[in-house]
């Protein structure tokens, strides 16, 4: 018997590891006789039925399997149908700057974790994942502080980068000294005795030889296609409305202004934007012309990198609390979820929130299972990462910070306020600067919620509250059985971006786990999160995406814990089917932009290609980029996606005051012309289709002042203030006007 096999055999004889959430009695699935067979048959039948419902409910899912007959069509879509557009080397500046930010994040986070003693009891993979996540949050906060001080055009962030590298070099040199090595060995022996893994990460788990050996050794390679899709898609210019409205537009405005300031025209720009500041940081680091545009793509890539970082966190958690195979399966399940790939490619921030959420949960679970009574460093990690979720957006205050505070207080069986105080202090460090900024700039730390604040009139607050309330059904009910069933179906299988792997494998963990206390704790958190989402939000499905890594971890447990060989074979088969189905669905034409290998310059100019039936850059925006000259400025009416415009834009979201109304209302023709000239407005773009959408029943609403008779009859024909600019677009949907500098005689 080899030494490796002897170690594995010894592991199998060890007692179960302390997960911090003690196991209940062994589940009947690990016994013998009819009980185990009946449960296994039930699991297999349930998984088969779920797959049938999952694919039958959305024909697009099974139809995507037809792509195997058209591989040339898939590959052709990557170059927009024209191989002369192929380019890949132009991604090098994006990769370089994004890689620099990730390296700096790891170095800064590693120094921080060492300083607070958070590395004790952690594996090497744990330390890498936690360090990178902590460092990303720290660099975001540093960028915020420098931006608030007006230093974005100064050298301060570059000096900080040099300082982090120098600090890392000194720290490594210090650790390499002889006395440091001896001290580390002493610490290591103590940590081994106190670690939750002291009894082996696979103790009490299933026999490793019951899984195919390739799953542990090479299984992670199955996630490579999804990783490539995420990274190649993240380097594409943005097409999502929210991303072009504020996720990348707000960092662009702050970068061009050289400071982080209140934005009266973009209500979303005054909320916590911790993930988006990676785009701002990338703009600062990006050299050359159009640093804002290239930096935005590099920042978008950094945001996308939270997805593989979360997968590595799942790999580490699965290894610690179950087996190596559980970690591999959890990582594969997560990285392949269509929702995750979609938000990561688009530049949306749910992947970043999901990463911080999972690692906060993981850190507090490690703390709860520490045999030495729980280390303060692990609680500091959990709190800071929970605070990082609240630095990205407001909902995690309810979804993450509040419930984990209670866990910190009661995890050890009795009420203890000290761990909760440490947790909340660290959380405040992770997000407090954002809330202090809002308090100073607007008078409301959670602007624009509840208390309103600067520029929030009663009418605008009422409009905001109507748009973000729990949605009623056709009978005006907000909480009904039919709505609950519909929401459960959407989460379970109906949502087009859901994965077929999450629910059946997570359900198996809940039914058959040997360490039921841990699983019940995670399942309770899933239930709490979904309950808050359903009872207290406007039920946007994207809001539950940050919960998916917790379900992926449960899925990893569910694949390995039922101690039946036939189930594990079925779990591997289900994994392969799910990975293939998700990959083919993501490659389906028409879902979103697939031009992964097209020249970025061509995509910036958007020499037209179709994305969901529309060009990424609107013809009116393309016209302005081509014809505007230095000093020109455009006033956007109803159009709140100015990211791709290269000339300055005066715009507003539908929740802010309409600048067109403030410049035009109750003024004479000469006064209107003078107001436009003072604002350097040469063009006015009116997006009628967006205005009509905002005014449609149940939508957000829009200023009643803006009408077609006002624009066409009064401003164009009567006052001759505006001159129509011919566009290759339907004037009933959008119109572009040039401001007449002098009235016609």
Describe this structure in words.
There is one protein chain. By secondary structure, this protein is mainly alpha-helical. The chain has two domains: 413 residues, no CATH class; 122 residues, no CATH class. It has 33 helices and seven strands. The strands form two sheets. A five-stranded mixed sheet has the order 4-3-5-7-6, covered by helices on one side. The protein has a two-stranded antiparallel sheet with strand order 1-2. The N terminus is likely disordered.
- The Rg value, from CA coordinates, equals 27 Å
Number of domains: 2
Strand order of the largest sheet: 4-3-5-7-6
Measured distance between first and last alpha carbons: 101 Å
The helix-and-strand class reads mainly alpha
Strand content: under 5%
Q: Could you tell me the mean pLDDT? A: 88
Low-pLDDT stretches = 3-33, 179-183, 185-209, 609-614
The biggest sheet amounts to:
5 strands, mixed
Annotation, overall tally of beta strands = 7
What share of the residues lie within helices? 55-70%
**What characteristic shape results from the CA principal axes?**
globular
Number of helices: 33
């Amino acid at each position: 018997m080899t030494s490796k096999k002897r170690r594995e055999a010894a592991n199998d004889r060890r007692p179960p590891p302390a997960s911090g959430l003690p196991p209940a009695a062994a589940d009947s699935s690990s016994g013998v006789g009819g009980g185990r067979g009946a449960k296994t048959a039930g699991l297999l039948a349930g998984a088969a039925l779920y797959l049938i419902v999952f694919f039958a409910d959305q024909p697009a899912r099974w139809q995507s399997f037809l792509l195997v007959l058209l591989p040339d069509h898939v590959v052709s879509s990557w170059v927009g149908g024209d191989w002369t557009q192929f380019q890949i080397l132009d991604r090098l500046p994006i990769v370089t700057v994004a890689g620099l930010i990730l390296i700096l994040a790891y170095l800064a986070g590693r120094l921080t974790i060492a300083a607070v003693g958070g590395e004790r009891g952690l594996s090497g993979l744990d330390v890498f994942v936690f360090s990178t996540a902590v460092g990303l949050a720290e660099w975001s906060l540093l960028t915020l502080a420098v931006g608030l001080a007006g230093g974005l055009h100064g050298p301060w962030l570059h000096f900080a980068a040099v300082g982090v590298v120098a600090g890392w070099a000194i720290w490594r040199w210090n650790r390499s000294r002889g006395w440091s090595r001896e001290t580390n060995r002493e610490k290591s022996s103590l940590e081994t005795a106190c670690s939750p893994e002291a009894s082996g990460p696979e103790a009490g788990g299933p026999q490793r030889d019951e899984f195919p050996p390739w799953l542990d050794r090479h299984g992670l390679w199955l996630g490579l296609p999804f990783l490539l899709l995420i990274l190649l898609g993240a380097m594409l210019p943005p097409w999502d409305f929210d991303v072009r409205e504020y996720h990348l537009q707000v960092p662009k405005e702050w970068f061009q202004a050289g400071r982080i300031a209140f934005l009266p025209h973009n209500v979303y720009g005054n909320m916590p934007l911790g993930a988006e500041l990676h785009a701002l940081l990338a703009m600062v680091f990006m050299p050359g012309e159009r640093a804002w545009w290239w930096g935005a793509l590099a920042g978008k890539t950094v945001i996308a990198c939270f997805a593989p970082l979360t997968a590595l966190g799942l790999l580490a958690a699965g290894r610690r609390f179950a087996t190596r195979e559980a970690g591999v399966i959890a990582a594969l399940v997560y990285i392949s979820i269509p929702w995750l790939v979609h938000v990561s490619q688009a530049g949306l921030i749910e992947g970043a929130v999901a990463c911080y959420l999972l690692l906060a949960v993981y850190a507090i679970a490690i703390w709860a299972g520490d045999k030495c009574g729980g280390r303060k460093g692990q609680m500091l990690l959990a709190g800071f990462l929970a605070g990082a979720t609240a630095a990205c957006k407001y909902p995690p205050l309810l979804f993450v910070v509040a419930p984990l505070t209670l866990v910190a207080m009661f995890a050890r069986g009795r009420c203890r306020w000290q761990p909760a105080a440490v947790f909340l202090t660290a959380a405040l460090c992770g997000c407090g600067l954002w809330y202090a900024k809002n308090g100073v700039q607007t008078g409301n730390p959670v602007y624009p919620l509840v208390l309103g604040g600067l520029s929030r009139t009663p009418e605008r607050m009422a409009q905001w509250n109507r748009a973000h309330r729990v949605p009623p059904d056709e009978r005006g009910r907000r909480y009904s059985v039919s709505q609950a069933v519909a929401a459960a179906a959407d989460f379970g299988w109906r949502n087009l971006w859901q994965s077929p792997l999450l629910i059946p494998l997570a359900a198996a963990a809940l039914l058959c786990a040997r360490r039921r206390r841990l699983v019940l704790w995670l399942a309770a958190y899933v239930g709490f999160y979904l309950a808050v989402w359903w009872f207290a939000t406007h039920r946007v499905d994207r809001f539950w995406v940050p919960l998916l890594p917790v379900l992926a971890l449960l899925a990893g447990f569910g694949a390995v814990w039922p101690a039946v060989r036939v189930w594990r074979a079925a779990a591997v088969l289900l994994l392969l089917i799910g990975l293939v189905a998700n990959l083919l669905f993501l490659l389906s034409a028409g879902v979103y932009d697939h031009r992964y290998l097209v020249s970025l310059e061509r995509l910036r100019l958007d020499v037209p290609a179709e994305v969901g039936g529309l060009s990424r850059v609107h013809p009116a925006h393309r016209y302005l980029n081509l014809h505007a000259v230095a000093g020109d400025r455009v006033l956007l009416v109803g159009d709140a996606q100015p990211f791709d415009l290269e000339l300055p834009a005066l715009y507003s979201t539908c929740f802010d005051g309409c600048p067109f109304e403030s410049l035009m209302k109750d003024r004479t023709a000469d006064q209107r012309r003078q107001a436009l000239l003072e604002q350097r407005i040469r063009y006015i773009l009116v997006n009628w289709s967006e205005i009509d959408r905002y005014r449609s029943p149940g939508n957000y609403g829009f200023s009643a002042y803006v009408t077609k008779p006002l624009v066409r009859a009064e401003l164009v024909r009567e006052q001759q203030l505006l001159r129509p600019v011919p566009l290759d677009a339907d004037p009933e949907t959008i119109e572009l006007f040039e401001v007449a500098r002098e009235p016609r005689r």
